[in-house]
């Protein structure tokens, strides 16, 4: 009897992981198609479609990993409750990034807020330090994309000064 219960438990699929895997593979397909459709081609170095192909491959690997994880036997006690405060903070962080770009405040400010609010979602209390770290990382990413990859990120007042 107990062996039959273990066999049934081993064959069950985790539907949430399966759905996340399907969504990730869908994003991988869209990103891969977008990379294939780009008209910008460079004869040397990294270019936008190379980076997009890399993102598509990573999304596909994550999707496949979710499929594999969905078939693994788990105990019902392994499920965790969602931390809705953290989810709300991360949603606010993404909203702040989109709002900064849409309202013309620029990539650096939006990404700085994204970093600081996401760190806060993971219970980090040093908001001023996180703002500084986020600013430094955002500035480095901005220079990397603008100068090395020759890709224009959304400009705001700060980016125009640089």
Could you characterize the architecture of this molecule?
- The model is unreliable at 4-8 (pLDDT under 50).
- By secondary structure, the chain is mostly helical.
- It is flat and about 55 Å long.
- It has helices spanning 2-11, 15-37, 48-70, 84-102, 107-121, 127-148, 157-161.
- α2 (15-37) packs antiparallel against α3 (48-70), α4 (84-102) runs antiparallel to α5 and α5 crosses α6.
- The protein contains seven helices and no strands.
Strand and helix layout:
Blueprint: H1 2-11, H2 15-37, H3 48-70, H4 84-102, H5 107-121, H6 127-148, H7 157-161
Helix pairs in contact: 2-3, 4-5, 5-6
Structure in a nutshell:
By secondary structure, the chain is mostly helical. It contains seven helices and no strands.
Keywords for this entry:
162 residues; mainly alpha; 7 helices; 72% helix
Number of strands: 0
Low-confidence stretches: 4-8
Content of β-strand = under 5%
Average pLDDT taken over every residue? 83
Work out the radius of gyration.
21 Å
Helical content band: over 70%
**Main sheet attributes: strand count, strand direction, barrel closure:** none
**What's the overall geometry?**
flat
Termini separation (Å)? Answer: 71 Å
Q: So how many helices?
A: 7
């Amino acid at each position: 009897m107990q062996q039959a219960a273990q066999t049934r438990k081993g064959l069950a699929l985790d539907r949430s992981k399966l759905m996340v895997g399907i969504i990730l593979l869908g994003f991988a397909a869209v990103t891969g198609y977008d990379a294939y459709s780009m008209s910008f081609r460079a004869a040397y170095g990294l270019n936008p479609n190379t980076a997009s192909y890399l993102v598509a491959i990573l999304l596909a690997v994550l999707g496949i990993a979710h499929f594999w994880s969905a078939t693994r036997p788990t105990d019902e006690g392994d499920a965790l409750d969602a931390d809705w405060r953290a989810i709300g903070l991360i949603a606010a962080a993404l909203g702040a990034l989109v709002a900064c770009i849409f309202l013309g405040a620029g990539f650096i400010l939006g990404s700085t807020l994204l970093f600081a609010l996401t760190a806060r979602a993971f219970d980090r209390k040093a908001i001023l330090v996180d703002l500084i770290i986020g600013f430094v990382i955002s500035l480095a990413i901005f220079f990397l994309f603008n100068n090395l990859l020759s890709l224009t990120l959304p400009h705001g007042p700060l980016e125009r000064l640089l």
